[in-house]
Amino acid sequence: MRMIKGASFCLLFFLSFLVLDTVQGNPNYIDALTKSILFFQGQRSGRLPKTQQITWRSNSGLSDGLLAHVDLTGGYYDAGDNVKFNFPMAFTTTMLSWGTLEYGKKMGPQLQDARAAIRWATDYLLKCATATPGKLYVGVGDPNLDHKCWERPEDMDTARYVYSVSPSNPGSDVAGETAAALAAASMVFRKVDPKYSRLLLKTAKNVMQFAMQYRGAYSDSLGSAVCPFYCSYSGYKDELLWGASWLLRATNDVSYYNFLKSLGADDGTDIFSWDNKFAGAHVLLSRRALLNNDKNFDSFKQQAEDFMCRILPNSPYSSTQYTQGGLMYKLPASNLQYVTSITFLLTTYSKYMSATKHTFNCGSLLVTSSSLRNLAKKQVDYILGVNPLKMSYMVGYGPYFPKRIHHRGSSLPSLASHPQAMGCDGGFQPFYYSSNPNPNILIGAIVGGPNQNDGYPDDRTDYSHSEPATYINAAIVGPLAFFAR
Question: Is the pTM of this model over 0.85?
Answer without folding.
Answer: yes
